[in-house]
Amino acid sequence: MRSNRKILLIVLFIVMGAAFFLQAQQGAKLKKETYKAKKAASVQSVALKDAFPALSFSMPIEFLSPKDGTNRNFVVAQRGKIHVFANSPNVKESKVFLDIESKVTAGGERGLLGMAFHPEFKKNGYFYLNYTRNTSGLETVISRFTASKNDPNMADPASEVILLTFKQPYNNHNGGKVAFGNDGFLYIGVGDGGSGGDPQKNGQNRTTLLGKILRIDVNKTSGGLKYSIPADNPYKGNTQGFKEEIFAYGIRNPWRFSFDKTTGDLWMGDVGQNKIEEIDIVKKGGNYGWNVMEAEDCYGSGNCNTQDLILPVWSYRQGPQTGNSVTGGHVYRGKSLKSLKGKYIYGDYVTGNIWALTPSSGGKYSNALVIKHKGMISSFGEDANNELYVCSYGDGKIYKLE
Ligand SMILES: [Ca+2]
Ligand SMILES: [Ca+2]
């Protein structure tokens, strides 16, 4: 999600999406929308099904489930609400788990952008949010909240503990994802600050948190922080003024990252500028190139010094057939879709393409179209069984791959 031209494009798609939604509503028979996949090479026929026909949400941007044995799903709505409901296609209603709309500044790429359950959520009730607010200028807030002890389907709005804030120089490129790695640390996706082309050169500047993946330890505090810096963070204790929270840098706008539950790999979609969308496997201390490079090309004109810059594991040129804004997904570790096992499933926000990346020899990957969603894909998510879902931004529905 990027510059003005792109925003225009996105607005156009929202209008088209709304028209599509109205059409769909007129035909009540279409209530259960099932899109049959075209058979793609190496991928079985996969359908996208309206997973919870009775439910829809306003601008859903995250779907997730705590591993607490309750088999509940949570949907984050961008304006600042979190909804909770039973993981059943017959579920009749959702409940508002938390409403922080009054705290959140939303619109465009701003809002309540991410949620993560603490690995010990069942015991401590902690969950973490990433949102933008405007108190004295736009900023990102990373907070911990606690679920109510009396009602598991309610969070306590007064339980907020702000861990970290940092200023946002522009409205766009706020990243927004938060997730716990297999190492138990909290990872935070932060965009380059915004505008276009990274005018402040934040991606390569390690004295700012912008344009980075951060990693913090929320289970300890140290040095006046509400968290601590993991002992092996790449810049812990550095004397160059680099931010110790940095895990990796050179990132433009990480729109969704996730961890492979089997290998622990951190997979990221990094939204491109005007040419190329990319998928990265993010390693500790890695420099992912922005704004020296846009994916595998030098950004801007002519040559660039590509030494030590890590190339994406996959990329695609922007276009009407491919897309204009990558949405990172998940390595599929569910049970029902055997042909997707171990593959990285991701998509494009604008075109609705959903692809599978399959590892092949020599660290290379092959790419296949799984299915095309007729709407905008704001996010992928997983339920308690690691089955895969799509947040459809325009019609507010949650679709399941099956
Ligand atoms: Ca920003
Ligand atoms: Ca890159």
Task: Please give a structural write-up.
This protein has two helices and 27 strands. It has a single domain, classed as Neuraminidase. About 7% of the residues have low confidence. A hairpin with a 7-residue loop joins strand 3 and strand 4. The chain is mainly β. The strands form seven sheets. It has a five-stranded antiparallel β-sheet with strand order 1-2-27-26-25, with no helix packed on it. A four-stranded antiparallel β-sheet has the order 3-4-5-6, with no helix packed on it. Helices cover 7% and strands 37% of the residues.
Number of domains: 1
Rg measurement, Å: 20 Å
Portion in helices:
under 10%
**Gap between N and C termini:** 28 Å
Average pLDDT over all residues:
91
Low-confidence stretches at least 5 residues in length (pLDDT < 50)? 15-42
Mind telling me the CATH superfamily name?
TolB, C-terminal domain
Q: Which second-level CATH architecture applies?
A: 6 Propeller
The strand order across the widest sheet is 1-2-27-26-25
Strand content: 35-45%
- For the record, the CATH class is Mainly Beta
SSE topology string: HEEEEEEEHEEEEEEEEEEEEEEEEEEEE
CATH topology: Neuraminidase
Task: Return the structural class.
Answer: mainly beta
Bound molecules: calcium ion
The major sheet is characterized as: 5 strands, antiparallel
Query: DSSP helix count?
Result: 2
The beta-strand count equals 27
Descriptive keywords:
402 residues; binds calcium ion; Neuraminidase; 27 strands; five-stranded antiparallel beta sheet; four-stranded antiparallel beta sheet; mainly beta; single chain
